[in-house]
Design brief:
Length: 110
């Protein structure tokens, strides 16, 4: 009886390992963009959202990338980084900079 349990246990462990190895990656791919000017990282894609941190001008941040393009999120309108005046731009990137993940105005990242 004891031998049967060991064999069963090894089989379950091997099947679990195989399942974990063949599972798709949980994280989206990223590519690097640089801040055109200092920009706040927001908790959501809105200027009224809490600021979590800052990407300084020229600093590199990881931006979500899928199917050959940077992933854009539509959120609150902003007049930032070249969208001055009456232009209301509402596209954002989800970025990670120095361990902080949040949203920045897409017009600010080059």
């Amino acid at each position: 009886m004891r031998k049967n349990l060991k064999v069963l246990g090894a089989g379950v462990a091997a099947a679990t390992a195989l399942t974990l190895m063949s599972a798709p990656a949980a994280h989206a791919a990223t590519k690097t963009l640089h801040a055109g000017e200092s920009v706040r990282i927001r908790a959501t894609a809105s200027t009224s959202s809490a600021a979590l941190g800052l990407v300084p001008k020229g600093a590199a941040a990881a931006v979500q990338f899928k199917d050959g393009a940077y992933v854009r999120y539509f959120g609150g309108a902003h007049n930032a980084c070249g969208t001055r005046g009456n232009v209301k731009y509402n596209q954002w990137y989800k970025v990670t900079y120095k361990g902080i993940t949040g949203y920045v105005a897409s017009a600010c990242m080059w």
